[in-house]
Amino acid sequence: MKYPIILNLFLLISCFVFSQEQVIKITKISTGKEIIIKENKRIKIKTQDGRKLTGRFSIEGNSIRIDNELLELDAIAELKRNPLLTSILSSTFLIYAGSLAIGFGALIGVLVDSTAYWLILPGAGMVFAGAKSPNFNRKFKNDGSWSFEIINLSD
């Protein structure tokens, strides 16, 4: 009777120990608002020396690894979420809408009125913006208004 109780207690304790995951907690210093980004999410980082890194991050100690580069939290100048679905949908929509504007501008310009060629300019801008893969998510800057910290989050 004693062994099943000890086994259940051991399993319960090991479940609590291994269920903790590390996250980046971003805190707005003036208001105390906290934002949590879980490990293995896609982010964009700009470092203090100007390098730009994009990809999934993992936490190792008090630093993060992204694109096989280990970064301390103090080396991050800007951090931004970069969800894959949002990136794909926004860039696809902009390229598709820009292509339609270019096509209709050329077609109407040839068949109806030559002033419709002006539709090609915003269409080209939309295609260019879609090719640059826009990210409309908020940017968290490490300039004193936001603080970054790694914490353990238990489920």
Automatic annotation (TrEMBL):
Transmembrane parts of this sequence: 88-109, 115-131
Highest taxon of the lineage: Bacteria
The entry's keywords: Membrane, Transmembrane, Transmembrane helix
Organism listed in the record: Winogradskyella alexanderae
Name under which the protein is recorded: Uncharacterized protein
